[in-house]
Fold these 2 entries.
Entry 1:
Amino acid sequence: MKTVEPDLVPYDEAVAAYDVVMGIEVHVELSTASKMFCGCSTAFGAEPNTQTCPTCLGLPGSLPVLNQQAVESAIRIGLALGCDVAEWCRFARKNYFYPDMPKNFQTSQYDEPICFDGATTVEVEGREFVIPIERAHMEEDTGKSLHVGGATGRIHGADHSLVDYNRAGIPLIEIVTKPIEGTGALAPQVARAYVAHLRDLLRSLGVSDVRMEQGSLRADLNVSLRRAPEAPFGTRSETKNVNSLRSVERAVRYEISRHAGIIDAGMKVTQETRHWHEDTGITTAGRSKEQAEDYRYFPEPDLVPVAPERAWVEQLKAALPEPPAVRRPRLQAGWGFSDLEMRDVLNVGALDLIEQTVAAGTAPAAARKWWLTELARRANEQGVELDALPVTPAHVATVQSLVDAGELNDKLARQVFEGVLAGEGTPEQVVEKRGLKLVSDDGALTAAVEEALAANPDVVAKVRGGKHQAAGALVGAVMKATKGQADAARVRELLLERIGVDH
Amino acid sequence: MTDTTTDLVRLSATETAGVIARGEASAADVAKAHLDRIGAVDGAVHAFLHVDAEGALAAAREVDDKRARGEEQGPLAGVPLALKDVMAQRGVPTTCGSKMLEGWRPPYDSTVVTRLRAAGVVILGKTNMDEFAMGSSTEHSAYGATHNPWDLDRIPGGSGGGSAAAVAAYEAPLAIGTDTGGSIRQPAAVTGTVGVKPTYGGVSRYGLVAFSSSLDQAGPCSRTVLDAALLHEAIGGHDPRDSTSIDAPLPPVVAAAREGAQGRLDGVRVGVVRELSGEGYQPGVEQRFHEAVDLLRELGATVTEVSCPHFQYALSAYYLIAPSECSSNLARFDAMRYGLRVGDDGEHSAEEVMALTRAAGFGPEVKRRIMLGTYALSSGYYDAYYGSAQKVRTLISRDFAQAYEQVDVLVSPTTPTTAFPLGSKLEDPIAMYLNDLCTIPSNLAGGAAMSLPCGLSPDDGLPVGLQIMAPAMADDRLYRVGAAVETALADRWGGNLLTQAPELQEKA
Ligand SMILES: [Zn+2]
């Protein structure tokens, strides 16, 4: 069934006419060694169905055993988000049928989340926004369906489906915000900043790989519009499984325009889930509220209640890493970056990368230069996050050290990164394979210098006459002859030496 | 069949282990004798769904080899056992009495099976049961009913009728049952055998195909109280694979059984539950029960009447909680990964295959309970049904707690009636459910309970069960009191009750 949707309202008009309310649910896969309720490995990318056992396959008679490491991670996440930690809470079964759900119920938490009532702050365009946190609860991931033979990759129209249960039972933490209000036209950026902030926070806690492109962090975006901040909430849509920061921003933006179009046309927004299409930049309808299932939640009888000891919780709280709001000013001061430079660093998500690069021995300015220019450009071209590039902070540090040693110039360094990105190996291997070393051997250079002097007697005369800047043309000739692999400063030295002028 | 083999199958588990340990018979001989007995009588009884002769003989030979090497073995080494078909055993068909799991061979062992193997127990095969343990007669098995060895036209109880009948018919001296609302004790009562539902959490549920997770408990079936204690000890104790398993030492059940067999119960306080007698109870059952109470007094126990006013709501609460959990537990039977698959012809969607399979694979009683539970958990009804039932559960636990302030154990008849004729209650689910009136409260409260024979009802000559109940983790009290009653009655009868059972016709 296709329903005709009204035209989108241009974004600026939409946010001028309506007040935006958002709610964001983020699912984080924990990086525990084993799954939530069994001993199977959680490693990503293994052969399908090789990381399974009776419990995560839901075989008859199998039982869950709670992963205590996951409980600890959940509590630390909650504490880092300023949440209270439940003295006593239970798991619940969320009952629904789906082939990638081995038991046809998901073991989750319902009305007794382990963490609740927190808040965290994000900054967008110099303004601070407080994001109220409703809860952070534990649950298990489902398996992964692959629908074969259809045009869309979705279940409809597929010939058959394959299910990989390696993901079934991976520990998830779902972090749910309260309604986020008062963001105005910045709503999409606030949504993005919040997800980016969570990503940084979770990474600093060391609880997750936070690889959005691998789905270890994914966001469900609830958006609704109302005429004025005093008005009751409008009907919301929920765009599911958005898995890049860029998409978070785009999807919110799109939904605002779409909702405005519907309301302007005098129609009613349907409460439904939406699918985000990265390629076309639009959302399409999923399940509506009328089709929504009754999950028949009830307390999980196979698990005993979780009652974290207070002393332990206090201990975890005391051992939390430095919060981003403290860490950022500290790093900025240490690196000597201006506010503007720091904002750029945060915008491209390069903070951790630069910190690690500096830690590997690179000067802060050089680290910033590589990540924010050459590498940010590459990431943008490929449509991936900066940290998803195969280039690591250690690579950047190596390249910069070669530059500092005069073995590479910036142009060659860029070629080294190109090679690393193309999968040609480490920077050292790329330098080796592509033969990118600067020609610093004076013997090889001398020939090129002699040639240049012989070919340009008039320029040589000018230089002798005191016009030292004219030597640039000679340097250019030598660089051309050596295909750029010479150190320009050294070439200049040799030329001036040969001509017999002081330099 | 020779006299020796006849003798071997008549021995208790304790005696059997002794015979093997002393080298009077090999474990393989014992296993063969039981396999022969199964071959001779199971055509009439139908206690077994699957007989694993090969596996049994291999396990028996292993016991014999160990004995030959002089290795120390446990008190049940070489003793044959019948395993309820709800318990996963690696590589051996496990159907739960359902078409849904026809042909499914678990790739893993339940903890109970692991411990049985470690104890050198010889598993003969898998016993019949009501489908997914839902029923009180085994008539809800997809593979046909089991017959009561006392009267082949009557039910052997359920859901573990196969396990109880196997023990009563001398097909095995021991069996494993599971008890969610009485599925060990009610079959024990109507077949003249002993059955124990341990404290909830006392025996691991890992590998027990779940019916109702908060109620299910595996336990021993046997012909003597001491045998039950030995089996209880072999399978019980903490298991890290079951989060609801109690992390504490098992109560000293074997010692208690031996102490009870000395005969006296001086200082033991026994409470008779007022609410578990009277209207609806067969007069012959009541008579034997009152005689058993008199016997307890004669043995030195002090007997008082106690009231558990909320027991009257137990059945209603049970029929909300158990179906609710079952509706969720049985959701996994969807044709996607194992078991039956119907409609996989390229014409039907996965969702349709699930629906067709569940429609074809589940029997009417299972469907009735899934629907009941699905309804009870639905949004808008949850508080009124599941929520209220949980409150009743708390009140019943409180009744027990108050009673145990005054007494050490509680007693009642195990069932309101003796074994009823096959087919007589199939059309009336409520009448069937009422059979579990006395057994359900212990499941709801998580306590321990035993049924042992206390005579034949004078009105129909069929076995009557005495139920003894004890607080959680006081399972030893059951064994002390039970063994004392058993010893006194055996003196009176000149042997245990089963010696009065009619001989089954043996097929040549
Ligand atoms: Zn697993």
Entry 2:
Amino acid sequence: MKRNTSSHLATLAIMTTLGLVLAFVSLWFGVRPLPTSTVWQALVAFDPSNTEHMIVHELRLPRAMAALIGGGALGMAGALMQSLSRNPLADPGLLGVNGGAALGVVISIWVLGATAQSQLVFPALAGAGLAATLVLLLGGAVRPRGPDPTRLILAGAAVGALFLALTWAILILSRESLDTYRFWVLGGFTGITKSDLVALLPLFAVSLPMGLAAAFLLAPLILGDDTARALGVRVGFVRVFSTVAIVALCGLTVSMAGPIAFIGLVVPHLVRPLLGADLRLVAIGSFLTGAALAVLADILGRLILPGQEIEAGATMALIGGPSLILLVRFRREVAL
Amino acid sequence: MTAHLTCENLCLSYGKTPVLTDVNLDLVPGQITAIVGPNGCGKSSLLRCLSRVQSPTKGQVLLDGEPIHKQNTKQVARKIAFMPQSATAPTGMRIMDLVLRGRTPHQSPLQQWTSEDQRIVERALDQVGLTHRAHELLEDLSGGQLQRAWIAMVLAQDTEILLLDEPTTFLDLAHQQDILKLVRELQADRGLTVAMVLHDINLASRFTDNIIALRDQNVLCSGVPQDVITEPNIQDIYGLACSVIADPHHGLPHIILK
Ligand SMILES: Nc1ncnc2c1ncn2[C@@H]1O[C@H](COP(=O)(O)OP(=O)(O)OP(=O)(O)O)[C@@H](O)[C@H]1O
Ligand SMILES: [Mg+2]
């Protein structure tokens, strides 16, 4: 017991360090590469009149933080989602929030003429929230025994498909929307400004602890509904609460950075062999690993093609696809 | 003073199919009761209702006179432990992790782990003889070892009432005996009230104080083994012809099929 606990703490500490180091390294890269010493100076002795310091503070730091928080939120949501649905291949995207966010985005482009990434954040959030509410209602969240995970996923698939269909309908009507949407839908942390981040931080500050609480609440459910009920768990409430936490985490991330695939799906699988079956540890580990992976994807996107940036969403798909194949090939079977 | 579990006019249907109709029963406090009956007669359903896992369609289950479906879930879980018939666990879980889960109703978000929890978990592991394997993965265990790990989990819940659905099904003869002896010890030492579904009538006769036989959605007969295990009753419950003899060691009723 003792030995296990301390080795788990060490693993979590390594994951944290990795994320922070990568985030620091990410501050060097960009259209104008900055020397380490300048980056360091900008952090410890900030000088507002120095343009290089301003670049670090206004652009690169918010971007690194957005990647850390967004990647972490997706990782944690993935761990919760796989446990909630008892399906190791479940991705939080299955709950339909990405479709809702996409619809919010194209409506705001079409009707309000939004073009900048940061103008899209709140419309996306509204769309994601609407989709999440519909999914919860259709998934049976208000029934006395609570939602049934299979029903939730079906509702998510239906709502997501409906919202994407509406999105495409608008895109067909308006060519200009397509140009902005095409960029948004790749997903990435490039366009994030300090003010977007500041506006979203309080919402993350609520939903990340909710995600952690959901991990604690969901943990006994891995033994099955009957056993959990016999242990005094209010299964229906736990499912509703966890679903709300998952859609909040994903909705916020997709609003901030667009849809980023694979983190929610792959990260929990990377974490479980290191931390075991305890959802509480896996959720924390998935947050840390998701954060590190998102920053890594963001860095690689700036390195692969010199002079150009590839969106983190696209890089993530490049990393995620092969790692999923490796996981399927080499890991022993997981049942949740 | 042990908890007293009864039910009154309990009815349960899944959709339109009735499974239990107007069941009345009383688990004698501090004694062991066996629930027997043919496959599909509603034994598991009854146990699920008694443990608050399933809400009855009509009627109620009373714990010390109070309806359990109206009580706080956690409070009930500190008094009644239930082991389902087909329990599942995810991969990557160790015996220790499973048994720790039994402490759930005694923990709160702010107080996750105490030395009391530690002591009770170690005792439960010891009682089922799994102390030295506590760190093994559940998927690496045999069916019988797995069953014992689950029993340790409900023991760790440290309740006055124990409801076990087929605790001996996957066990070899020796381990069936071990589990039933363990249940007997717990009942004798700590005054636990136990109800368990058993399929082996002879084991039920040997290791329990009362037997409740179910048939056609209701209790067919109940009482001490000598009253329940008779040739006509076995004919009524299972439709089987048999002779009942007194077993040579304890003089308890023992059935021999014709
Ligand atoms: N969740 C359910 N939904 C619908 N029908 C059910 C459900 N659970 C049980 N049943 C039905 O209720 C009846 C009683 O089932 P139950 O599991 O209580 O029987 P049992 O006496 O425990 O049988 P066994 O000895 O095989 O374990 C069966 O006919 C079964 O088909
Ligand atoms: Mg049964």
